[in-house]
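Deliverable D4.2, example record:
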Amino acid sequence: MNLTESGDIVQWPETHYVFVEKTGVIPRIAPEAWEVAIGLVPQLAEKSQISWRMSLYKMPPSTYRAGFVVAEKPNMVPAGMQYELFGGGKYSRFVLTGPYSDLPAATRRVFEIVAQRGIATRDDFCIESYVSDPRSRPEEKLITEILIPTA
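Output generated by the structure prediction step:
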């Protein structure tokens, strides 16, 4: 697994976010949320400029949001999706280069690092920002930022 473990501090900006939200066991609900979200892309793209994919997750309770950063607040979102101006804030950033199938192990490792280093976190959503597009980049070169909200 190719994971940067430095945990650089970054400031995530306010972000216009359209998403599908599910609650439950994240490894089970995440694929379901993405299946619904990806199925709604044509309707979303009719009304909004999609910038990139991003998921937000929080525990407890286990809440997972599969969605898309859009250029501006949409006038309308497809049925089954929600809009939020995500507030952003201070985050510790770790970067995974490789297939999405490495994300569960990478996320576990990130939480281990945060605990080992005693990084103070705040009660907010963690972010997975999918920097590269799997339709145009080989799986082993996909870049995903894993961001942990820090105090």
